[in-house]
């Protein structure tokens, strides 16, 4: 965990000055209504080199609690990779006791796949069913929502490590 935080700090130090950046929509962290923890997840695929998964957990005040990074040699589709990141985030939340919580993903397709009642025969459908079962097993203590990438920036960085 300490290494992940050091990498993030180092990365942020080496970013261009604010005046050099292209203006973006301002996205601020939003406090949670009911959940105690916000679990941001992201995935990235590396052409021919596998997939990276990133997780950042913050408490209801936005204070950093923990981060996780996982690399695999498997080349998933972007939606399947994001479903794997969501599953990874759930695993960390349960293992470390970050429940109740809200998972945030910047992949609308993955979030919609999980929220569907019917199961698809595609690999994404099978994986979303596993994630749905994990969420359901927490008896209403975990939710999931779509969030724009700008609000999951730190997680996006971890997924690229």
TrEMBL record:
Instruction: Domain (RNase H type-1): give its ranges.
Output: 40-160
Ranges annotated as spanning the membrane? none
Q: Which Gene3D superfamilies match?
A: Ribonuclease H-like superfamily/Ribonuclease H
InterPro entries with a match to the protein in the record: RNase_H-like_dom_plant, RNase_H-like_EbsB-rel, RNaseH-like_sf, RNaseH_domain, RNaseH_sf
Query: Which Pfam families has this protein been placed in?
Result: RVT_3 (PF13456)
Domain of life of the organism in this record? Eukaryota
GO molecular function terms listed in the Swiss-Prot or TrEMBL record = nucleic acid binding; RNA-DNA hybrid ribonuclease activity
- Name used for this protein in its record: RNase H type-1 domain-containing protein
Species this chain originates from:
Linum trigynum
- Please spell out the taxonomic lineage of the organism that makes this protein: Eukaryota, Viridiplantae, Streptophyta, Embryophyta, Tracheophyta
């Amino acid at each position: 965990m300490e290494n992940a935080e050091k990498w993030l700090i180092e990365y942020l130090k080496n970013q261009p000055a604010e005046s050099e950046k292209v203006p973006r929509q301002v996205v601020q962290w939003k406090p949670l209504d009911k959940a105690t923890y916000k679990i941001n997840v992201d995935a990235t695929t590396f052409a021919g080199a596998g997939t990276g998964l990133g997780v950042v957990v913050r408490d209801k005040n936005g204070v950093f609690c923990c981060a996780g990074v996982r690399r695999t040699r498997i080349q998933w589709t972007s939606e399947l990779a994001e479903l794997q990141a969501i599953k990874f985030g759930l695993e960390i939340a349960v293992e470390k006791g970050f429940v109740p919580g809200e998972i945030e993903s910047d992949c609308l397709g993955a979030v919609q796949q999980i929220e569907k009642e019917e199961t698809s025969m595609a690999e994404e459908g099978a994986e979303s069913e596993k994630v749905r079962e994990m969420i359901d097993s927490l008896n209403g203590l975990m939710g999931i929502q779509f969030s724009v990438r700008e609000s999951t920036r730190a997680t996006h960085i971890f997924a690229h490590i």
